[in-house]
Design a protein that fits this description.
The complex is a heterodimer of chains A (207) and B (105). By secondary structure, chain A is an all-alpha fold. Among the domains of chain A are: 76 residues, NADH-ubiquinone/plastoquinone oxidoreductase chain 6, subunit NuoJ (Four Helix Bundle (Hemerythrin (Met), subunit A), Up-down Bundle); 66 residues, no CATH class. Helices cover 72% and strands 0% of the residues of chain A. Chain A is extended and about 65 Å long. Chain B has a single domain, classed as Helix Hairpins (Orthogonal Bundle). Chain B contains 3 helices and no strands. Classes of the chains: A mainly alpha (207), B mainly alpha (105). Chains A and B meet through helix 1, helix 2, helix 3, helix 4 and helix 5 of A and helix 1, helix 2 and helix 3 of B.
Chain lengths: 207, 105
């Protein structure tokens, strides 16, 4: 990928990320976060992680952000826009970011493996095909794509997910089920006592 | 050319922005969005490490599996967290952190 695109998408991601924190209206923050996630998805694609990039757009920029916007609209939050800025929090937050960025720059400067450029770690489908044949892994569809010199990202992820990480996948499925049940339990109105009281409240009124 | 350090730096900066948002914003929903941003920043690091650590000419897919699991857990976390925020809003009529100081007094 040309360097220009990396800088462009990084700028989109970080710029909209700053807008998320800086904008006062929660709706603007949510939309900026969606744009920031689109830039992040482009960076994923630039790293050859096509599946993760698509998932990022579908799950984060799609589902999660719509959920956020839905909740913001539902709660109708306007009051806190007029509130005054908390000055100690702003100073503390900016200082925290500055210290973090400085520390990051120091650590990365002393990280020799980090100076490798993308061309030094080339993807070679032919080498992968030979290694797979040597290991005895045979999958016609993947081998075809590798022989054609393409990177079958989604197929390889599926193969890894359903062989090596099958157990983890099922645990995650149970987690999602538990979360769904939990959300229903939490967000249900606790009107077991209130519901019978409302219809019956006119009845016991003394004449 | 782009090196691994560039990706790690961008990822760290996104994490720092999210951290700043958690510290200095007072709206619970915006704080939650900044938490999501920090999770995504970690994902970028993982994918970058996966891509630069090629094994047999392919990216190391263990890193991308981790990202897949993180995204799933984050989606579940968003659902539960927003349900808690809604329950909180019903009880207190606010999502402003400064108003939620019952445990302080």
């Amino acid at each position: 990928m040309p360097s220009v695109l990396f800088y462009l998408f990084s700028a989109i991601m970080l710029g909209f990320g700053i807008l998320v924190v800086a904008l006062r209206n929660p709706v603007s923050s949510a939309l900026s976060l969606a744009a920031s996630f689109l830039g992040l998805a482009a960076l994923f694609v630039s790293l050859g992680a096509f599946f993760i990039g698509v998932i990022q757009v579908l799950v984060y920029a799609g589902a999660v952000m719509v959920l956020f916007l839905f909740i913001i609209m539902l709660l109708d939050i306007q009051a806190e826009q007029r509130r005054k800025l908390n000055l100690p929090a702003v100073i503390g937050g900016s200082l925290l970011v500055l210290v973090f960025a400085l520390q990051l720059a120091t650590v990365l400067g002393d990280f020799p493996a980090g100076h490798r450029i993308l061309n030094a770690a080339p993807l070679s489908p032919t080498a992968a095909l030979e290694a797979r044949r040597a290991a005895g892994t045979v999958h016609a569809s993947i081998d075809q794509d590798l022989a054609a010199g393409k990177l079958p990202d989604v197929k390889l992820i599926g193969e890894t997910l359903f062989s090596q990480y099958n157990f983890h996948l099922q645990i995650i499925g149970v987690l999602l089920l538990v979360a769904t049940v939990g959300v229903i339990v939490i967000s249900r109105r606790e009107d077991k006592t209130a519901a019978p009281a409302e219809p019956s409240s006119p009845a016991p009124t003394p004449p | 050319m782009i090196s691994l350090n560039d990706y790690l730096l961008v990822s760290g900066l996104l994490f720092a922005i999210g951290l700043a948002g958690v510290v200095l914003r007072r709206n619970l929903i915006v704080i939650f969005m900044c938490l999501e941003m920090m999770l995504s920043a970690a994902n970028l690091s993982l994918v970058a490490f996966s891509r630069f650590n090629t094994t047999n000419g392919l990216p190391d897919y263990r890193g991308q599996m981790m990202v897949f699991l993180i995204i799933t857990v984050a989606a579940a976390e968003v659902a539960v967290g927003l349900a808690i925020i809604i329950a909180l809003f019903r009880a207190r009529r606010t999502v402003h952190v400064d108003d939620l100081d019952a445990m302080k007094h």
